[in-house]
Amino acid sequence: MASKSSRSLRGIEIFRSLSDASLTILEGACAWRALAAGQRLIGHDDTSDEVFFVVEGSLRVVIYAPNGRPVLFRAMGPGDVIGEIAAIDRKPRSASVEAASRALVAQLDGAAFRALAASEPTVAMALLRQSIAYVRELSGRVYAFSSLA
After folding, report:
1. Alpha helices in the chain (DSSP H)
2. Proportion of the chain above pLDDT 70, given as a percent
3. What's the rounded Cα separation, in Å, for the pair 149 and 144?
4. CA-CA distance, 49 to 9, in Å (whole number)?
5. In this structure, is the dihedral angle defined by the CA atoms of residues 81, 86, 89 and 95, taken in order, positive or negative?
């Protein structure tokens, strides 16, 4: 799918302020995974804590209702971060993540991600801004849904 030369984290939003040298070290610390459309990356309630960075393709964050109906929470694409919540709070995954198309993701161990956030304040602030944006988006969705009745 992707050549070794396309395995770059330069397009990941939270890493925009990192130097080329720091980014190269981080890229080397990642495992790179190619996903086929429909392939599961994370399962709801999994206890893993890896963080994934979407380099190519699209993924969807879902929880399946007891009747099997998927409830879509978010679509993810290049530049996005997946799994940071479990890496930070060390609790089970809050949703499943599946590839909506062929995708390439970089996988970083949870402990390495926590160390990165602790040592790079610009990454930590970018992560906070991203998390706040998600809370605002979900608050808007809850309001819209509850006002339908």
Report:
1. 20-29, 84-89, 110-119, 121-146
2. 96
3. 10
4. 19
5. positive
